[in-house]
Amino acid sequence: MKYVSTRGQAPSLDFQGVTLAGLASDGGLYVPEVWPQFTADEIAGMAGLPYAQLAQKIMLPFVGDCLTSERLLELCEKAYGRFAHAAVVPLKQLDETQWVLELFHGPTLAFKDVALQLLGLLFEEFLARGDDHLTIVGATSGDTGSAAIDAVAGRAKVDIFMLHPHGRVSDVQRRQMTTVIAPNVYNIAIDGSFDDAQATVKRMFNDAAITGRFGIAAVNSINWARLMAQVVYYFYAALQLGAPGRKVAFSVPTGNFGDVFAGYVAAKMGLPIERLIVATNVNDILHRALSTGDYSASTVTATAAPSMDIQVSSNFERLLFDGCGRDGAALAEQMRTFEATKAVQLTNAQRESSAALFSSERADAGDMANAMRWAYEMCGEVLDPHTAIALHAARVATNIPAGVPIVTLATAHPAKFVDAVERATGLRPGLPARVGDLFDREERCDHLTGGYDEIAAYVTSRATARNG
Ligand SMILES: *Cc1c(COP(=O)(O)O)cnc(C)c1O
């Protein structure tokens, strides 16, 4: 399998290449040259497989000959063996229509573990083949940081620099990053929003002074391997609900458009998905883009669902690429306009192709709290704020035919956002025992103002050069 850049100018890479890369050298994101397809019979044959075996089957076409199928299965078994639930991602029923898929049983209590536990093993596997040293630079709205740090802390040949917006992540989220004391882990709090942190990271990926010296890699969902790992649970849930014989809809709490893009990939591979509902909070750029074609960023409002407090959704570029017939030059022009003016209009072709599968809903703080209360009082399910936003979107959606189950992706454990959960339900969910004495541990974190030069100097003075 070859991977091409959405902006059409970067060299194509194989799976190992895209896993170890950051942005493509033309500023674009890597996507598979073609979407692999499964027939309905092949999908039916996957019913009942344990999670790791299903993951191997779904991912093998993307991995190509970079791993044998046996090795891929070993890595999947190791990654998903760290989950605290035998089903890895259990599916629960709320009422006749509504279901939730619990993706938060990994080590750091959010769905990011599903992809990052595997990505950490892929880094190790591929780095063992050469002399390269990897420098991971990432931005986090809270959950990517802890999941990525857990996945690589203490590993050889890799350092991780993780930027988070100071004061805008929950206490549990911050402590899950800053209490990991390992020589290869650097936490940086910056003044500003997640978008500012993400812009810094993207600039670093395009900074020849840095990429010339260091092997810079991404753990954000600009990394293709992350999205690939997330495709699996769409199949897993749909198979349990009768796919391929029956269609299923999904509602996805969306920030950087990675998780819901994985659903789009599942549909491209042949999974019969009725609809993907993109749920946003008041930071609703994606809702506006999908409903009116207006992709324009405004300022970020901090909410109780910080992982959705995003205005620039990196992976939307991957959808726009398919929506313009994979015309890299046209997309590069469109993205340059967006980067310069923070606003761009979708073309008719982009609007029509996205409308065939996606719809969107926006939830404010009241909608979120009501959905959380409904799930708790009517169904005994305690949801985190992100999941509650998507459940709200699932319940108000009017375009899902009767009889089609709607699966809301439960992206975080409620104990990660305990104050918001208590405000809505009166309940204070406790942290699972596996996270240990989080609040007694020492924290290590540097606070920088967020200026690019300062952050670049910080990384340059601490990172290990490519062949070091
Ligand atoms: C990261 C995250 C999201 C958003 O996922 P994207 O792939 O960025 O759209 C939603 N909920 C939680 C809890 C998250 O950590």
In the CATH hierarchy, the third-tier topology of the domain at 91-108 and 225-425 is known as Rossmann fold
Name of the level-1 CATH class of the domain at 91-108 and 225-425: Alpha Beta
Number of helices: 19
| Radius of gyration from CA coordinates | 20 Å
Strand content: 5-15%
Average per-residue pLDDT, rounded, comes to 95
What does this structure look like?
- This protein is an alpha/beta fold and 468 residues long.
- The chain has a domain at 91-108 and 225-425: Rossmann fold (3-Layer(aba) Sandwich).
- Helix content is 42%, strand content 15%.
- It has helices at 15-20, 40-44, 51-63, 69-80, 112-127, 143-152, 171-178, 194-205, 208-211, 224-240, 258-268, 285-292, 316-323, 328-341, 348-355, 365-379, 385-396, 418-425, 452-462, and strands spanning 3-5, 30-32, 91-93, 98-102, 134-139, 158-165, 185-190, 215-217, 248-253, 273-280, 294-296, 343-345, 358-362, 406-410, 446-448.
- A six-stranded mixed sheet has the order 3-4-14-9-10-13, with helices on both faces. Strands 8-5-6-7-15 form a five-stranded parallel sheet, with helices on both faces.
- Helix 7 (171-178) links the parallel strand 6 and strand 7.
- Helix 3 (51-63) crosses helix 10, helix 10 (224-240) packs across helix 11 and helix 16 crosses helix 18.
- It is globular.
- Bound molecules: pyridoxal-5'-phosphate (PLP).
- Pyridoxal-5'-phosphate (PLP) binds at residues 110, 112, 143, 221, 253-259, 307-308, 386, 411-412.
